[in-house]
Amino acid sequence: MSPQAEDELALVRKSADDPEAFGELYSRHVRRIYSYIYYRTGDQHEAEDLTARVFQRALRHVGRFTDKGVPFSAWLYRIAHNLVANWHRDRSRRPTVALDEYIVASGSGSHPEAMAMASEERDMLLATVRQLPDDRQQLLILKFVERLSNAEIGQIMGKTEGAVKSLYHRTLSSLREELAAAPHTGQASAAPSPSERDDA
Fold first, then answer.
1. pLDDT tens digits for range 80-97
2. Best CA proximity match to 89, nearest among 36, 40, 144
3. Does 102 map to a domain?
4. What's the start-to-end Cα distance of the chain, in Å?
5. Alpha-carbon distance 181 to 4, whole Å?
6. Which member of 51, 118, 141, 185 has the lowest number of beta carbons within 10 Å of its beta carbon?
7. For 186, left (φ over 0), alpha (ψ -120 to 50), or beta?
8. 69 plus 118 within the same structural domain
């Protein structure tokens, strides 16, 4: 176990009786948890509320956290995932991904026609992503927004690293097929090849 992991585990153990220790954990993880929830809901106010609920639930149950080789951050992401799933279920709507700021077509430059084409391709990609199953949307957020490795994603999603890699390749293949079948002008360039984000 790395010194950083040992330090965090010590904080987790102290947090059950020491609010300051939990406050340190909150400071370390709140930004990424909020970011994850925001890109699952697309709503700032709901993301703020759900983030607060994640840490409220974590504080109530932190005494039950046990070291099983899964980091505290993965435990928080799982709480966040469950709350977001309930949020979507309560509203009876399909989860969406607000990836507008992160998926930008390359090579558009500043030429108006090129920028218009890039915007059209980006909108097409986003519309396609929003049709993906929940687990594939979650995978794309963790990989492209949170920039986690396959191993880290596996810890959060409860999958092996190999299963994550396989799901990732299937997801990209589905995106390419949908984009190729969609009527559009030019070649969509925002969907990366497997090698671009493939972990060794």
1. 999 998 988 887 655 455
2. 40
3. no
4. 21
5. 47
6. 185
7. left
8. no
